[in-house]
Amino acid sequence: MTAVRLSELAAALNLEREGAIDPVITGAAGIEAAGPGQITFVDSPRFLRHLGASRAAAVIVRPGVECPLPCLRAADPHSVFAAVLARFAMPRERVFPPGVHATALVDPTAVLGVGVAVGPYSVIGGSARLGDGCALGSHVVIGPDVVIGPRATLYAHVTVREGVEIGAEVILHAGAVVGSDGFGYRQGAAGLVKIPQIGRVVLEDGVEVGANACIDRAQTDVTRVGAGTKLDNLVQIGHNVTVGRHCAVSAQCGISGSSQLGDGVVLGGQVGVADHITVGDGAKVAAQSGLDRDLPAGAVVFGSPAVERRRAYRLVALTHRLPELFARLRRLEAAIGVEDASRDPEDPE
Amino acid sequence: MTAVRLSELAAALNLEREGAIDPVITGAAGIEAAGPGQITFVDSPRFLRHLGASRAAAVIVRPGVECPLPCLRAADPHSVFAAVLARFAMPRERVFPPGVHATALVDPTAVLGVGVAVGPYSVIGGSARLGDGCALGSHVVIGPDVVIGPRATLYAHVTVREGVEIGAEVILHAGAVVGSDGFGYRQGAAGLVKIPQIGRVVLEDGVEVGANACIDRAQTDVTRVGAGTKLDNLVQIGHNVTVGRHCAVSAQCGISGSSQLGDGVVLGGQVGVADHITVGDGAKVAAQSGLDRDLPAGAVVFGSPAVERRRAYRLVALTHRLPELFARLRRLEAAIGVEDASRDPEDPE
Amino acid sequence: MTAVRLSELAAALNLEREGAIDPVITGAAGIEAAGPGQITFVDSPRFLRHLGASRAAAVIVRPGVECPLPCLRAADPHSVFAAVLARFAMPRERVFPPGVHATALVDPTAVLGVGVAVGPYSVIGGSARLGDGCALGSHVVIGPDVVIGPRATLYAHVTVREGVEIGAEVILHAGAVVGSDGFGYRQGAAGLVKIPQIGRVVLEDGVEVGANACIDRAQTDVTRVGAGTKLDNLVQIGHNVTVGRHCAVSAQCGISGSSQLGDGVVLGGQVGVADHITVGDGAKVAAQSGLDRDLPAGAVVFGSPAVERRRAYRLVALTHRLPELFARLRRLEAAIGVEDASRDPEDPE
Fold first, then answer.
1. How many angstroms separate the CA atoms of A339 and A330, rounded?
2. Preceding amide of A305 cis, omega within 30
3. φ, ψ at C132 (rounded to 5°)
4. Residue in A85, A137, A156 closest to B196 by CB
5. A-chain residues within 8 Å CB-CB of B182?
6. From A195, which residue of chain C is nearest by alpha-carbon distance?
7. Mutate to test the interface with A, among B146, B155, B220, B252 (most CBs of A within 10 A)
8. Which residues in chain C touch residue B246, judged by CB atoms under 8 angstroms apart?
């Protein structure tokens, strides 16, 4: 367990420290959960009220905030807290013991960089190349001709199929599959006929792929995820999709074949994107929405099919008023003596 | 293959047996599929008509029901049938051969209880503790500092990451991932910056987690699934979520970060729960619904966004009458000579 | 790398070749991406305009189309292209090296056909039978009593649990789980009580199952996927489901327990099918739809709950006109002097 004086954290992070005592910090927690030995933070004024009752050993707060606990002062407490968290994470060497485990099978034609860790029972195929400082957990399977950049992290049970290209500092969480066949068939006389999927997948630098997520290889050409983009667990990326840079794709989203997302796109959970759709830079799609057509840059949408978000919520609100609408209509009909048309099978609209 | 006389089943389950013959039972099946040698059950009166044509060897029925087949009498045939099924399941020792397989890698600092089974190629990390009678299939990966209670069952390819705590009699199905990083980032100048996810996951006693389901570790603190709760396949539980006790979460549901479900909550398939939502005890959410706000205890809802279920279905029904509504409106407009407002760009609502 | 003269492709595929030169072909790509050495195709007239600027080495086109590049003539360029792709795929022997790897654990009672490939660390249980020419990647786990037909392909980390039956030429992509327990419980006094799931799964000939997809075993009887049916990544098939022949089930669909799909059914992405539903032959369900009742053969539907597709889109369009509807109603009310009923709490509809 890491144990560090608050004064050491202050020095390491170059922050002002306040308080009569200099507690030993052994962990970090949110403001409501933090207990003895733990450091926490308060970013939003509405959480300041928790400070009085907190059992935390110390807290990170904005300058000027009155604080009954030993504290560090920072203009952006949340980002400083993130830096503190890194110090209390299990050391990388414990999660990924250094060196190539004796049971790992590394093809003689594979090339491993300096300081690569390969866990038990992992298998690395012919001509694969792993950059310096890569860490592979247990049971990782790397196919032939795969290229992985420096300092990538692959957790247990990840599968990277043949020819996939992975950039620097990419993180693949447990069970993720990269390079599976795209869902491509043509209708033959006797049923669906598989179209060979011979393209590649490229994950650019800094991409993170969630647990049990799936990224299909292209039919030909490339399925690409741009630099810095984060995909959450159980996400599905179809063949020949391009996801731009610095996107955030929440859990259980599915992006169908050949669609193209721009940079900085944000998808809420369980969003579906139809095939051959283009989504502009910075578009935001609320959870459970379905995109069935192109979106311009900066669009903010909701619904299935999705429309502009404020409009979508207004339509939801008006839908909730349908009972009232029918009542008002009936009253009008009564007022002017028109028979209720609902008994009329004709529907001219 | 298990083979047992109906009279033996009757004795073991303490039930009344009827019928001139005492058939040998070798399996169990539903009423429509049951064939020679198989026992079945009839719970609902509408299935009684199948009894005449059934080729089943025996049937479990309520007292007083006329039955042309050898039968066992029980007030609750379904629950008795479940007890019978257990006798015809493949023996646990065949699915999980006893002992630690020679190829399993158990860290010298790990502690295994009495009667633990560990399958081929499984890997158990440092300081992990497995309770008595745990059964691990092939290729299970247990990280450092994991604690697993007695009689837990982990199928092939399960990943349990560092520090996760698992209760007694928990079942993790194949490919499930427990303790993956939460989806936590902050917006930095050059894109999304990962926030270290250093919290834990606690699965309380009796939890069952479906195949390829994912449960993220907390950022700090704990992601918790309460005792007796069942999660189906491909479910996603975000970081810092709390799921209460005895909940049923159907396949492909996703629960976003920090949301809290009470006890006895039931989610249909593909439900999405937004982040920081509180769902009261006993709430029921129909399939494909989306929760974007808190639900009180006992609520029964449907829709995306979800509303009270009867209301939701009424709104669906009224939406289906929109063509009629437009027609009636047009007729009224014609009757009083008001011009069709649809040509008016103004929209005062 | 495969390298072949265009004339050799023409001969192998029995097609007419045109053009002054006979280029060496080393790969294949789509019309917009194709570069030197690559063959491409043009099926639709709207892509013909790309031919002039293409750097492709050759192109497959319909008879009669003017073509500035060396070309092959075919009535169905797309299907010929698929045949060409197969020649440029990584050879099966490279992806699945022949023979049983020294680290594979094959139970002595298992029976392997001729030419079976088993990758590193795969585990094959007692009494399992694998047909001729099956190929298993690394870390495949086959339970006891599993039967697999000839020429099946199982990628890395696939789990096939005890007693599952798999037909000829079935493909299981990485991480797929076949035969996990169905989600079956009964309400007991102290919470949900697990009902043993002792049935089987049968995947008929030619079925393809996507990466990290899950197919639950039946409670009793059989969960069945019909011949030629293709399931995409992350699909969930519940216990006792029957999927017919030659269906296409897109990514992230979920089919709940005991539902029955006919032949040739097509489900778009993220579709949900409730339990005990019957879907007729050839029905088509648009993405994100939810089926809560039976569908007749040939139905084409959309929405959650799903209705006939044209009707669904019309209802969406009319919903988008709700602001106009309210405005028209208000105008009518003003014209005849009826008070706005929205202030009336009574709701007679």
1. 9
2. yes
3. -55, 140
4. A85
5. none
6. C82
7. B220
8. 191-192
Domain A4-89 maps to which CATH number in 2.60.200.20, 2.40.30.20, 3.40.630.10, 3.40.1390.10?
3.40.1390.10
Residue C144: which of B137, B173, B175, B157 has the closest Cα?
B137
Interface test with chain C among A324, A342, A349, by most C beta carbons within 10 Å:
A324
Selecting among A101, A139, A239, A320, the annotated active-site residue is A239
In what side-by-side order are the strands of the sheet with C284-285? C117-118, C135-136, C153-154, C171-172, C208-209, C230-231, C248-249, C266-267, C284-285, C300-303, C306-308
Residue with tokens 């087949």, as numbered in its chain: B69
User: Is the ipTM beyond the 0.90 threshold?
Assistant: yes
CATH 2.60.40.10, domain B97-310, yes or no: no
Q: Whose structure tokens read 């009972």?
A: A323
Pick C88's closest partner by Cβ from A198, A324, A336. Answer: A198
In chain C, which residues fall in CATH 2.160.10.10?
96-310
Q: What distance in Å separates residue A161's CA from the closest CA in chain C?
A: 9
| Active-site option among B173, B239, B246, B320 | B239
> Can you give the length of chain B in residues?
349
Which among A164, A170, A229 has a CA at the least distance from the CA of A197? A164
CB contact at 8 A, C272 and C254: yes
User: CB of C208 within 8 A of CB of C233?
Assistant: no
Q: What is the 3-state secondary structure (H, E, C) of chain C?
A: CCCEEHHHHHHHHCCEEECCCCCEECEECCCCCCCCCEEEECCCHHHHHHCCCCCCCEEEECCCCCCCCCEEECCCHHHHHHHHHHHHCCCHHHHCCCCECCCCEECCCCEECCCCEECCCCEECCCCEECCCCEECCCCEECCCCEECCCCEECCCCEECCCCEECCCCEECCCCEEEECCCCEEEECCEEEECCCCCEEEECCCCEECCCCEEECCCCCEEEECCCCEECCCCEECCCCEECCCCEECCCCEECCCCEECCCCEECCCCEECCCCEECCCCEECCCCEECCCECCCCEEEECCEEEHHHHHHHHHHHHCHHHHHHHHHHHHHHHCCCCHHHCCCCCC
The candidate with the shortest Cα–Cα distance to A258, out of A277, A245, A244, A272, is: A277
Tokens 């404020």 map to which residue?
A: A310
With CA atoms as reference, report the closest residue to B181 among B194, B191, B170, B171. Answer: B194
Q: Which CATH superfamily is domain A96-310 in?
A: Hexapeptide repeat proteins (2.160.10.10)
Buried b (16+ CB within 10 A) or exposed e, A186-198: eeeeebbbbbbbb
Fill in the DSSP letter of residue B295: B
Cα–Cα distance for residue pair A289/A304, rounded to 1 Å:
5
- pTM value is 0.95
Catalytic residue at A239? yes
User: What pLDDT tens digit does each residue of chain B (349 aa) get?
Assistant: 689 999 999 999 999 999 999 999 999 999 988 999 999 999 888 888 888 889 999 999 999 888 999 999 999 999 899 999 999 999 999 999 999 999 999 999 999 999 999 999 999 999 999 999 999 999 999 999 999 999 999 999 999 999 999 999 999 999 999 999 999 999 988 899 999 999 999 999 999 999 999 999 999 999 999 999 999 999 999 999 999 999 999 999 999 999 999 999 999 999 999 999 999 999 999 999 999 999 999 999 999 999 999 999 999 999 999 999 999 999 999 998 886 545 544 444 3
Phi, psi of B305 (to 5 degrees): -70, 150
Name the amino acid, one letter, at C5: R
Residue C250 has which token pair?
């897109």
**Region(s) of chain B under CATH 2.160.10.10:** 97-310
List where CATH 3.40.1390.10 sits in chain C: 4-89
